[in-house]
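Quick one, tokens below. Sequence please?
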């Protein structure tokens, strides 16, 4: 049976634990999470272990990235199952603060990112979101002082925002994106998939199929707009309420007009019933 990782819940305890991990000049990788861990998170931990000698996983459901109308209170929290998964992966340290530890009384500072954070994708529908993400990740990076930060590509705009922030603020962290882990039918693994009804779960994979069909058409030489219109029609026909379905430059997230404009990424966000799903693929 796997032994449990060390768990710390206060900043002073975290500092001492990080110093201990680095006692032999070991490299450290941080995997930030909000818990409700699934195989996608496990893949991030395994990538972290390949990159660094020591692995820290944070579990913190960050209230500042939820709007009042969103699912902070109902967001899945599965501490015992999460701990078992991380013990099985033999992570070195779990940073599990409460809200008071992260945002103590009088907290009055936040990071307001621009660049990829105002690309007109997630920020168009969740204008509060990337300020909350940047602030909490900035805190996690300064608290844990990792050499590497590991993030999934499923939240692609978030990955670009965090990578830009780490460079712009000279945080000394190399941000690494990990490939999206998918279910057998192609649905991207997400903690929010538990909200889907059985029928919605069956339909949800159509999002991935529409992206793949759009990519196929673009690679086959179709006009960008025609290919995207076809993908939009497939998504809406499946019963989704579409927020966006766009193709952007894969590095800057700037709009493009031609397949020759650089490395491309298809990005989508859509609601199925009450559940909002996001996904993306490279072209």
């Amino acid at each position: 049976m796997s032994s449990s990782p060390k768990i710390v819940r206060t900043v002073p305890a975290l500092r001492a634990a990080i110093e201990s991990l680095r006692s032999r000049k070991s490299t450290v990788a941080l995997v930030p999470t909000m818990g409700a861990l699934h195989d996608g998170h496990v893949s991030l931990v395994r990538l972290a272990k390949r990159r660094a000698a020591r692995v820290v996983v944070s579990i913190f459901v960050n209230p500042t990235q939820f709007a009042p109308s969103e699912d902070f209170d109902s967001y899945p929290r599965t501490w015992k199952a999460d701990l078992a998964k991380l013990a099985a992966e033999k992570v070195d340290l779990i940073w599990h603060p409460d809200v008071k530890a992260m945002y103590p009384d009088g907290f009055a500072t936040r990071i307001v990112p621009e660049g990829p954070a105002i690309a007109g994708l997630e920020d168009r529908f969740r204008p509060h979101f990337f300020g909350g993400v940047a602030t909490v990740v900035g805190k996690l990076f300064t608290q844990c002082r990792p050499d590497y930060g590991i993030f999934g590509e499923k939240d692609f705009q978030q990955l670009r925002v965090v990578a830009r922030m780490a460079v712009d603020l000279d945080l000394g962290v190399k941000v690494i994106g990990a490939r999206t882990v998918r279910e057998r039918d192609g649905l991207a693994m997400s903690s929010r998939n538990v909200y889907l009804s059985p029928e919605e779960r069956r339909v949800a994979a159509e999002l991935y199929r529409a992206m793949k069909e759009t990519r196929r058409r673009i690679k086959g030489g179709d006009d960008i707009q025609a290919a995207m219109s076809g993908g939009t029609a497939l998504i809406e026909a499946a019963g989704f309420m579409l927020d966006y379905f766009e193709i952007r430059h894969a590095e800057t997230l700037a709009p493009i007009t031609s397949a020759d404009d650089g490395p491309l990424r298809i990005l989508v966000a859509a609601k199925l019933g009450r559940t909002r799903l996001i996904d993306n693929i490279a072209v």
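Residues 129-144 form the longest helix (16 residues). The first strand starts at residue 6 and ends at 8.
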